[in-house]
Amino acid sequence: MTKHLKIIDYAITSLLRRRYKSFAILAAYSLTVTTLASVLFLTHALRTETDYIMQGVPDLIVQRTIAGRHELIPVDYAEKIGAIPGVSGIRPRYWGYYYDGLTEANYTLLGSGGEPAPLQMLTGRLPVNPGESAVGAGVAALRGSAVSGELILVNSRNIGVLFQVTGLFRSESNLLTNDLVVLTDRDIVDFFGFPPGEATDFAVSIPQSSEIQTIAAKIKQLYPDTRPITKRELTRTYDMVFGWRSGMMLTVFCAAIIAFCIMAWDKATGLSADEKLEIGILKAIGWDTADVLALKFWEGLIISLTAFLSGMILAYVHVFFFNGFVLAAVIKGWSVLFPTFRLTPAFNLFYVLIMGFFTVVPYVASTVIPTWRAAITDPDSVMRG
Amino acid sequence: MILHPGVLALNIGSAITLLMLLYATVTGTVIIFRWDYSSSSAAQLMLERRTYLISTLVNYSLGFQVLSLILFIYCLDDIHQLFIGAMCATGSLNANPVGWYALLSKIMVFFLAGFWIALNVIDQKAEEYPLIKLKYLLLILLLPCIVLDFYLQISYFLGLDPAIITSCCGSLFGGDGDGAASSLAALPLVPSMLAFYGYFLVFSMIVCLNLYFASAALRVLLTLASALFLVLAIVSIISFVSTYIYELPTHHCPFDIMQRGYHFIGYPIYLTLLLGSYFGMLPGLFQPLKKISCLRQIIGAAETKWLTWSLTGVTLFVILVTYAINLSKLTYFQ
Amino acid sequence: MALIEVEKVSKVHNPGLADEMKALDGVSLSIERGDVAVLTGPSGSGKTSLISLIGCMARPTEGKIRVDGKDVVKLPERFLTDIRRRRFGFIFQQFHLIRELTVLENVLLPLYPLETSFRTMKDTALAILHKLRIDGKKSLKIKNLSGGEQQRVAIARALVNEPQIIVADEPTAHLDSRLAQEFMDILKLCNQEGKTIIIATHDPFIQTNPLVSKTIAMRDGRLESMKKK
């Protein structure tokens, strides 16, 4: 034990003595960790965001499809669906997307009758009367609504409509409300020009989660032109998409890992004359091959941990303070449509383990043979000159 | 195939481990054939130096293997969301039953590689490399296990299809099912608790007896007792420990205790259990080697350490379990 | 029984290769406890090969070497290392100190792989530096020292593990006569403490020094003569 503490002490001084070489490895190593960890943090953050979204999603959404495309659903479907045993409630939802040419951003317009559950008001209240609206922080910032208290949107008949802003949203998740504009149901119908008696979809509440599948099947039987989407399916789709995207990214970055390993191999093999002499001296004055191997192990571990820590911190800063600007476009894909939003910091202990497998394991494996070569230097090499 | 970052990391790590062990085994095989300790040739010197390389490679591999066991469990736990009906690792395993074999083989590899490392440590303490051929022969035998483990792991992840509807711990470890797992869960509470703590006392006594008497029979008894302890401990976790941790008399899952919601308590519980039973098995396994005169003393000295470690590991395990039980709001007894 | 017994030892470098070289050929000799033995002979006569074999740094191609009665020829490397670090102290021709480290750190080096605590290790090293009168420079880096100071650090490093045997390879090759005398004075002290000393040199100053108790002459890898004083 004391022996290893002493060898660690020696490892630290010897790394500091060769600070340029150590720093070169450290920089490349940290960069690799930063890249990989950014991918993981970003996907994890997005997953956390979608988890928040999922909290507000109804147990079952019923859409209507015609020719495989999403269509408005007649409100009178609700009666029969609501009568299915196990369904505790059903309400029509009115919502749609709105492209704002002025700010070149997409907004989500939602009827207040069907607002998602865990929304927290920042200030004000939800619209109650016609002509009132509540907007997300992103929209408010883009349109300056917070200051003016007004929002002008161009409706389906190409007429500008003025809405009073009565509330500004905040949520644990920016992604959820950032692009949101909430109007009264009547205003939505009017704004988009929905045919009377039709809604965007239904939100169905089913208290007993084991019955969701059965009820979905019944609805499909009752109205063959509908498509029931369970909350579960949505979650899985999100998970698949994010998992798949980050997996793809990581696969791509495997090239980076390989390049890094080649460099590690090269650095470990290319011992300078000084280093060779040093190992020769150590061997001559009583260090065993195993001691030199231990020294090299600790050196590697110190480099790894330092690079690891700095890489993780850099990635954390990159993702959560700068919104992962380097990688965001690749992973989020559709994010260009959104106004900017800030990710909620989320950290998972196991990402450290995963990162370890991606970086430390290849590093260790690619340096083990070169360090062994160095460690078996003949002890009498220093005498033979 | 699921492109989950953890799965990817696991497969990369396992592939590297496999490569390292493959290299070690090939080198070991060369040593078996070319080893000539009486020779002073440069080739023989090189072979001796290669033993350092092999030790390093196998040590690292075992390290990775332990970490990969943890990561494997974590991945199972994390990907369960992809399967309908899965709520924890059990569900992910049921989604492709090969996973159960992969898990089992990982635990096996943990023990086998651990035994090999103990053998290597013993051999390195002797002056004449008495076990050199035996240990590299065993290394050749260890390799197929690692290959099998890698194969099972890959085929498990390849065979996962998110469309699968699986069953989870609720049905597998439910008390009213009719499988082996359910019957474990349905074990009567009081007798299984008595058996668990009673057997712990017996086990500690066997270890103590071993510490005082150097009898070969006692050592072998301890090896069997350790293996039994491992099994009995897992049975106890399923039958009553888990219910305390979940505070639900009907929830018997051995995997859920490793989730965040339960403060990852499963990890220290299982690690101390694995270590305790690993060290407990060592003394008995090394009895035959005591016939080699130069090893008798070395093994004798190592045994004391192993026994201490075994007792420490198992005691810590029991303390952790008891702590979890005491912390629980669930009470069976007033 | 002699402290070191060398029996018909041969050493071939790079056997089977184009640059195969027979460095030692059937050398037998013995060194008693408390001896100050000098190995003489022209360059390439096998002096260095012989002391690296005696110092357990390498293994002979043939023959037997016993250190304190223990046959070291067939020991695995880690046991050779163990003997080397417990019984031998080495002083090399170019000192072979690590230039970027301080005096104290250099002297501590042989103790790192042992299980001695940091404090004991430091105390031992400081005591030896004090004895050799360079404790005042303990925090200086080697590259800032003069030749004579470097020599004393090299000696201190050889003594720090309290060895039974001190092995020196051409220790005075780069020293003027005053420093060479100082070196011999230090060795004399060590010898008085009961340490056995083996020096390979072709410096006549050492060869004729009254401290020397045994002169071993080498030529072409063979033992030419062994004279006891």
Describe this structure in words.
The complex is a heterotrimer of chains A (385), B (334) and C (229). With 385 residues, chain A is an alpha+beta fold. Chain A contains 14 helices and 14 strands. Chain A has 2 domains: 200 residues, no CATH class; 99 residues, no CATH class. In chain A, the strands form 3 sheets. In chain A, strands 5, 6, 7, 8, 9, 10 and 11 form a 7-stranded mixed β-sheet that branches. In chain A, strands 1, 2, 4, 13 and 14 form a 5-stranded antiparallel β-sheet that branches. In chain A, helix 9 packs parallel to helix 13 and helix 11 packs antiparallel against helix 13. Chain A starts with a helix and ends with a helix. In chain B, helix 9 runs antiparallel to helix 10. The radius of gyration of chain B is 22 Å and the shape is flat. Chain C is of the alpha/beta class. In chain C, strands 6-7-8-3-9-10 form a 6-stranded mixed β-sheet, sandwiched between helices. In chain C, strands 2-1-4-5 form a 4-stranded antiparallel β-sheet, covered by helices on one side. Chain C has a single domain, classed as 3-Layer(aba) Sandwich (Rossmann fold), CATH 3.40.50. The chains are: A alpha+beta (385), B mainly alpha (334), C alpha/beta (229).
How would you sum up this structure in a few lines?
The complex is a heterotrimer of chains A (385), B (334) and C (229). Chain B is mostly helical and 334 residues long.
The top level CATH class name of chain C? Alpha Beta
> What quaternary form is this?
heterotrimer
Q: How many extended strands of chain C?
A: 10
The secondary-structure element order of chain C is EEEHEEHEHHHEHEHEE
State the helicity of chain C in percent bands. Answer: 25-40%
Q: Describe the main β-sheet of chain C briefly.
A: 6 strands, mixed
The chain-level structural class of chain A is: alpha+beta
Rounded radius of gyration of chain A (Å): 30 Å
Q: Largest interface here, residues on each chain?
A: A-B, 37 and 34 residues
How many domains, in number, for the residues of chain A? 2
Which strand order does the major sheet of chain C show?
6-7-8-3-9-10
Radius of gyration of chain C: 17 Å
What is the CATH third-level topology name of chain C? Rossmann fold
Unreliably modeled segments of chain C: none
First-last Cα distance of chain C: 19 Å
What is the percentage of strand-forming residues of chain C? 25-35%
Individual helix count of chain C: 7
Overall residue-averaged pLDDT value of chain C: 90
Note the main sheet of chain A. 7 strands, mixed
